[in-house]
Structure formats: C-alpha cells, structure tokens
Amino acid sequence: MRLMPQTEAISNFKNRCEDVLTKLRQGPVLLMQRSQPAAVLIDPEAWNQHVVEMRNLRLLLLYYKRREAVRADPTSMVSDEELERQLQAKIKALA
Asked: What kind of architecture, by CATH, is found in domain 6-42?
C-alpha cells in the first residue's frame, strides 16, 4: 500500500469512474476539487482493516489510561469481573 495517496480530479471520477476505481488496486485515491483535497477512496478490505486497528488501538489506550489511574490511586482497582464488564461496554460502544 502506498503511503502517499494517488490523486485524481473529481471530474475524472465523474467521467471515468471505472479507471479511477481500478487505481484502488494500487492504494487509496485522493480526489481533488479545485486543487484541494475533497475525499479519499479506499477499498473495503483496507477500510475494514483500518476500523479493526483503530478499535484495537482505542482499547489499548483505555488499558494504559486505566493502568495509570490505578498506579496513581491503588484504591481505584476493580475486580476482574468489573473490569470485564467495563471492557465489554467499551467494546460495544466502539462497534
């Protein structure tokens, strides 16, 4: 996958949709309108991968924040059951 998205004018997307969608095989396509970024096209598999990675990163961040809170105040520690309940609630909220 390319780090720098390919660019394409929105007018080209309107007029040559199939050609622009073919570019998605090589990575995301940045649609430009009047030389300004307007939208990014990304294939569904890559999108799903990004969504899963973001969810996992949010959960990891939550874990580190919670760990620091317990270090700062050991009385804030919760039982395994309560932690599991809180994590399940967070997972549902992120889905």
From this structure: 3-Layer(aba) Sandwich (3.40)
